[in-house]
Specification:
alpha+beta; seven-stranded antiparallel β-sheet; six-stranded mixed β-sheet; 14 helices; globular
Length: about 575
């Protein structure tokens, strides 16, 4: 299901580069050290470290986003917000200032937002239904806590498999000032209206303005605008019946999705077993989304699809990804001129990577030819956690990796082409996946997409990964092309194994130490929960250069970029030189 591309490790070609010279090991300040309140139970010489009262940790997700657990009165516990309240209600009890306090305790630079996630163990919830913070407190326990009696606790808190009701946060090491600049000549109110009003969309120029070559900060500036769509009448129909209850088979959280399907049918004005009676326009549709790539939709037809079939965040995500999908920008221009899928004339190795990404959403790269220093630095960064029984991540600087990334213009060329001409290498982290995994402890063990739209991650294997026992990443090939109906909540993006196996060709990304793979996290993918061997990897992340700046402008609670990385923020474009 994939090919080896050992040419990636050969002398780099001079197509594109993130800047004029490779990074210097000391060029960037170290990330903030983890605070003492991040201390969790760990074994040192056979004895457990003491945990400070009020310490916090994240569980059930990743090291930048997850269920908040607090250490108080000698035990860890989670906060239950309940599931019956409207979003405005629980957000008043668990707002962004709370996340600012928690994220600071975790040693991360900023808060992205709050959310509800899957519950922890039934006997570990705390009698707390929220918190009120001003954002400057040193500890969550310094905030005004909404302490409740046990009689308050709803069924959603008593049952581990109930609807997601646990208080959660998303944190980040990134700030907008360090990203490519995005200029939108609109008020914040007008930007917020893009999310609510389906007749509005946000669009950016295909190419940014670049600073003078002697400027210290070599970051582009993208000009964007809010555009009102042309009036679209009627409804688009597809060959399959969308939003029927029969499509629930695609989802893990069927009860929650039954409500989403009912709301979608209501929006379309159709019954539970009916669909709109209008002519189809040739798009492929499924239970989870639409395939808009290579479509011949005109502006009015695309407007109608956005309005009728996509949730508010689904519409915005499409707007952010149109250059990568190829509906606008350099990809669209080249296709219109020649019918080709490419953006730039690419050398053989880069062309192979690009073609695999376009076709399958994943490219197996084989042996990357990394210097031995990369492994030494990465494993040293993890330390004892490389063999632990908990998910762990390190943002420690890896000079050998940074030099390799800066010199490998073959990889850069493929990434830039995939994103339509402009990309950012945001950063990297070293990750340990423990030998024992479950969908309860690691939500990414479900089939899912990352709710970040089109982005790329490069995984570098630090140990041999067995296809059966090593918890390999699995990817549903071709699913990167899906424009998903919903993007708001994690339960909307978790898919049943039977559905995925029946609908897609899946591949297991396993191999020898030093090999790697590049994939679009808009694919349906998962970390295999079955297995008995731990896995250590380096994860490197890329987005379209304008995307994360727009996400910040719109105030969206999205992992753009993922928050628990060592920031690099290297811009890569078609006109830079190695």
């Amino acid at each position: 299901s994939s090919c080896t591309c050992s040419a990636l490790a050969l002398q780099p070609v001079t197509v594109v580069s993130s800047r004029r010279s490779a990074p210097q090991p000391g060029a960037m300040a170290m990330a903030p050290k983890l605070t003492r309140t991040m201390v969790a139970l760990a074994a040192v010489a056979g004895r457990a470290l003491a945990v400070e009262e009020g310490a916090v940790r994240l569980a059930g997700g990743n090291t930048d986003a997850g269920r908040v657990e607090v250490y108080t009165k000698g035990r860890w516990g989670w906060i239950c917000l309940g599931d019956g309240d409207a979003e405005e209600s629980w957000r008043r009890r668990w707002g962004k200032p709370v996340a600012e306090v928690v994220c600071r305790q975790l040693g991360l630079r900023a808060a992205v937002g709050t959310m509800r996630m899957a519950n922890g163990k039934t006997d570990e919830y705390l009698p707390i239904a929220g918190a009120s913070c001003n954002g400057t407190e040193a500890s969550l326990l310094d905030c005004r806590l909404d302490v409740v009696g046990s009689q308050w606790v709803s069924d959603s808190c008593r049952e581990e498999e109930a609807r997601p009701a646990a208080a959660a946060v998303r944190c980040t090491m990134f700030v907008p000032e360090e990203q490519p600049a995005v200029e939108v000549d609109e008020t914040q109110a007008a930007l917020s209206a893009v999310i609510r009003d389906p007749s509005l969309r946000i669009a950016c120029d295909a190419d940014p303005r670049m600073p003078p070559k002697d400027a210290l900060r070599q970051m582009p500036t993208f000009s964007c605008a809010v555009i009102r769509e042309p009036t679209a009448t009627g409804t688009t129909a597809f060959d399959v019946r969308l939003f029927e209850d029969s499509t629930l088979e695609a989802f893990v959280f069927k009860d929650l999705m039954r409500e989403e399907l009912a709301a979608a049918r209501s929006r379309l004005g159709v019954a539970a077993c009916g669909s709109a009676d209008v002519a189809p326009i040739g798009l492929r549709a499924s239970a989870v989304g639409l395939d808009l790539e290579n479509s011949t939709l005109d502006v009015v037809e695309l407007s109608r699809v956005r309005r009728d079939y996509l949730s508010p965040l689904g519409r915005v995500m499409l707007d952010l990804d149109v250059d990568v999908v190829g509906l606008t920008g350099r990809k669209a221009q080249l296709r219109a001129a020649s019918g080709a899928a490419g953006v730039l004339p690419l050398p053989g190795a880069a062309a192979h990577i690009f073609e695999r990404l376009e076709d399958a959403g994943v490219a197996w790269l084989g042996d990357l030819g990394l210097p031995e220093g990369v492994y030494d630095e990465a494993m040293s960064a993890l330390g004892d956690r490389a063999h632990g029984n908990r998910l762990a991540a390190s943002m420690q600087m890896l000079p050998s990796l940074e030099q390799w990334l800066g010199e490998n213009s073959t990889l850069q060329a493929a990434v830039v082409a995939y994103f339509g001409g402009h990309a950012v290498l945001h950063g990297y982290k070293v990750v340990h996946l423990p030998a024992t995994l479950s969908t309860k402890s690691f939500i990414s063990a479900h089939w899912h997409h990352d709710r970040a739209g089109r982005r790329l991650k490069l995984f570098v294997l630090l140990n041999d990964v067995d296809p059966e026992e090593g918890h390999p990443t699995q990817v549903a090939e071709g699913s990167h092309r899906i424009t998903y109906y919903w993007q708001e909540e994690f339960q909307q993006s978790r898919y049943a194994d039977d559905y995925v196996q029946r609908s897609f060709r899946t591949t297991r990304l396993a191999g020898k130490r030093g090999s790697g793979y590049l994939f679009d996290t808009n694919t349906i993918h998962k970390g295999t929960p079955e297995g008995s061997q731990g896995r250590n990897v380096i994860v490197i992340e890329y987005h379209h250069a304008a995307k994360c700046g727009l996400v910040a402008k719109l105030g969206l609670n999205l992992p753009c970029p993922s928050g628990d990385q060592r920031p690099l923020n290297w811009y890569m474009g078609p006109d830079t030189s190695a």
